[in-house]
Task: structure prediction
Amino acid sequence: MLAKSLVLFIGIGVIAGFVFGVYLIDVKSSSQLVFVDGPSVSIVTEKSDFKKNEKINIMIVNSGTTSLSFSDASYGLRITGLSGILMYAPTVSHVVSSLEPGGQVIFSWDQIKNDGDVALEGLYKISVKGMDESENNVENSITVTIWK
Result:
């Protein structure tokens, strides 16, 4: 027979683990898309943890109330390692692109780096950089994890 204190501590541990798990799910899946007044850009992926060789769909959304312009058709999309080394940037024309408020564009990354190698497991930063109507920089970034 188990001691009452052991049962009590196991019960508290199970409840605390459940509460902490729910908290982490809420923090981990907090909305990547928040609409605001003024200039804003958001990056949305279907999840934050991906398996190796899984296609990553990246949606860039103008989540503000002003038009945004980008220096090329890649909408300023860059994927880097956490050290800042560029891993992937879409190869597109150098035509100025724009996104109206609420507008969105979708890119897919097959986890192949610009040099043709497959991305390794780890953390990657997806960032977007554009300009608002007043020529101010508008940027945002998220982090995704690639698992084996």
